[in-house]
Fold this sequence. Notes:
By secondary structure, this protein is mainly beta. About 10% of the residues lie in helices and about 50% in strands. The protein is globular, with a radius of gyration of 22 Å.
Amino acid sequence: MEITGKITKVLETVSGTSSAGKEWSKLSFIVTNQDGYEGADADYCFEVFGEEKVEKFSKFNKIGDEVDVKFNIRTNEFKGKYYTSLQSWSVFKAEAVEEAPEVAEAEEDDLPF
């Protein structure tokens, strides 16, 4: 899935050790766009998981940036409860749409005959 919006908040990086003894880190960030009910602002909380991805995100993105976020929706069960997360796997600056240059219309006197 993909969404475009503005980064409005970047939360603190969380890290820890898995039950298998592996170190992990996760960063969450909020993207706001106009996809809400009747064009209202809608907030989406995405996760970046893994030390390398967290560092890359922090290096190239900041609050106020317009970004395209590609993500997967994932649900995990823990002790009978279900948790859904939006796991981003690609975050890039949104490209401004370039308008086509205007073409001047030929005037009637400019006809070659």
